[in-house]
Write a structure and sequence with these properties.
It is a single chain. This protein is an alpha/beta fold and 416 residues long. The protein is 38% helix and 24% strand. The chain contains 15 helices and 16 strands. The strands form 2 sheets. Strands 7, 8, 9, 10, 11, 12, 13, 14, 15 and 16 form a 10-stranded mixed beta sheet that branches. It is elongated.
Length: 416
Amino acid sequence: MFKIAVMGCGVVGSGVADILLEKKEELSTRFKDEVALGAILDIRDFTGTPYEAYTTGNADEIFANPDIKLVVMTIGGLDLPYQLSKRALESGRHVVTSNKEVVAAYGKELTKLAFDNGVQFLYEASAGGGIPVIRPMNICLSSNDIYEIQGILNGTTNYILTKMKEDKMSFADALALAQKKGFAEANPTADVDGHDACRKIAILSSIAYGAFVDYKDVPCKGIRDVSYEDLALADKAGFAIKLIGSSKNTKQGVVISVEPLLLDKSHMLSGVSSVFNSVLVKGTYTGDVMFYGKGAGKLATASAVMGDIIEILCGTNPKVLPGYAENDAKVISDSEGMSRYYIRIKINGDVESTEVRQVAKSIFGEEGKIILPDNEAPSYMAVVTGYVSEKNLDAKKVELEKTLSVTCENIIRVEG
């Protein structure tokens, strides 16, 4: 008998419970054992629902049941799901989770704890939602040295940027629409400020590079400063703006960040729109491999959780600890590196746009590209610079603002 407890019957947890109830006979036949939902931990009242017979508000009841061999952790937050996951592993039960906060903060510790107790701690749903990416990296791409990852890792921000561009909306209006449709939380900070994507790129990088990347070391910038004007000007210059989690594994250490980037329209991630997510993985043998799909949603994420459950049912226990459970990555800054940048310039007072163009050309050189909106007397414009360091960019920005009555309102790095 192999019973499964679902801790947290919210969006994802209820999706897992639904699949377990629907697929009970199929799973039991496939694995020649009774595989079934055993309990649901939740303090809410589920009277009159399919979950009623399984629900308890007492975790001790679950841990006292020897038939429960696996715990699905879909409770949100950090402390409680961490403590319950740790308790489950210490009791010799497998744990599968979609909670990216727990994985990013305690994944190293919980993986070692699972190994020591002869069980597994799996978390496919924590980094890509319904997109299978962790298992392919661990198995299908395992002969490669993965050296770079780029990803649109948050469907909420991708939806907001898409609506801003397509419907000429402000950030505030697009965010309000995302909240109305249920794509964004009432408190959207984790999404729009990049913290959600930050945890995901740290998780993926830890797996890919065999060394634990602490998400607290990841430089992180969200999309609050991106305007419709930025998206329109970038489009005119042949770019799309996306919130990108990226990392590179170098001899010196891991260069990693979450930030809005200008992507050339030929880039594989530039056309990913709305709530869809995508992860681009670069390996020594495969080259570029892209994973694409819904990064959230009840059944999509529950499907990823079920994939982990089935892997455990197949009995594929690891023989050795993964590298990230034993090694820490060295996260380094790339501030001395050379990049191109997009700068949105607000024209103040009576300054003519022709004068701004002339001065900008003299400061940024012939390699600088001026982008103008379609209106005859623009109050703003943009420059895409040539390759400069951050220090040199800051100096040029100061020079431009001192020379003319203009304000550099937003600066976004250009990918590549």
